[in-house]
Write a structure and sequence with these properties.
globular; mainly alpha; two-stranded antiparallel ribbon; three-stranded antiparallel beta sheet; 31% helix; 478 residues; 6% strand
Amino acid sequence: MHKQYGFFFLFLVIVLCLAGCQNESATSLEEVEFVPADTLPQGTPHPITVNPTPTSQAPLPANECLDCHADPQRLLDSAAPAAVEAGLAPRTVWGEAAPVEAWEKVWVDGEAFLQTVHGHVACTGCHAGVQSPEKDTAHTGLVTRPSDGNQSVCVECHADVAGTYADSLHATLQGFQSMLEKRSSPANQPALQTIFAEHCNSGHASWGDCHVAQPASVGGGLFAGHMFVRTPPMTGSCTACHGSRVGDEYLGNNEGIPADIHSRQGQMECVDCHRSHELHGQPGNCGECHPGREGVEISLPEHRYDGLRSPTCISCHPDITLGSDNIEMHTVHGADLQCQVCHATAYSSCDGCHISIDETSGVPQYELESTYPTFLIGLNPQRSFDRPYKYVLVRHIPVTETSFEYYGEDRLPNFNALPTWAYTTPHNIQIITPQARSCNACHGNAELFLTVDKVAPGELEANLPVIVPEIPALITDD
């Protein structure tokens, strides 16, 4: 008798639980709210609206965004003809990216995406807009790049790192800003702000540019159907911005020069050395990449060579320190030489960057006069505790006194305040290089050093801190 009541009681509990689950799912569906962008106060972060977890009892609510964005044919049919023809340019001045069809840039893999964590957030929760089958209505108030700027929606769930990223060099491009300011003057600040907005802002990297789409500077385009990736893809994200120099050097795209040994033999990608805290602009304890510097507080850098080095060669090659690996050159030179002086090969330099008018669009754009291979050793213009080297590799940067004359004369009145041959860290490392084969491959070899005869007359004053006045003498048996 008691067993019968026990089975009946168990059956009743199961029925009530199932009923409760169904009711809960129904309630969740009713609570899903799609907030139009025009109801949000100016500057307010977009509210994150969460879809219910899909179950067999209750499918996700109708999503009119995906009705179009998950259908390649509808995307192709609705794309503007100019967008279809344009696609994505394979290379910009600074970076490169694979060509992508216009419809592909905004295609969402609905089936896969909805099973991910981000797929449980309503599209309008991040992108605003309106749930509508009509394209123009649906795109009303649309935010195409919701991860941009200080109002990034990513902060809602990733406050620990998104909060610092807004101040990182990737987000602010402070390196460009600070160099422009030093070469210019306070009177030119309004013009510089215009220049920066017109020609530098497209280089800003948002969270989305690293984790979900190709950077805006190369035309954008979702990586893989709006699937978020924890680790930025090297060719889809990193070299899309850093392709013309770093990418070509590292991957061996420069004719006659092999790929960096870390790429060729180690199959290493950018993030193997450039860790997340560096990319996210997180100041604080840096012992992970700087052994012995635990607890050192990192201030926001003015440019990429400001403050602590990250990464460092000795993080992975500690035996090199003070010549403890018994290699004579390491013992003799110690901290006198930047590692790349001996272990890099030829890298690119550029001349004559100007603002010119694009003949097709009529829009002002950058134009380079020339790009060419170099390998030159100069004096370190910014010796510090973290960069104590006397000799470093230098690369010509393309700025000239007339780079911004499109916006008026004399926009860089303090042009000589900074060298045009600048400290550089080529990404084409090799174990054996021509200059490292013997002492006198470098000593007494004037071709390897930045001397007066290799500097344009109009740039001599600017480059005095890096020009080598006397090359190291040949080493003789005496």
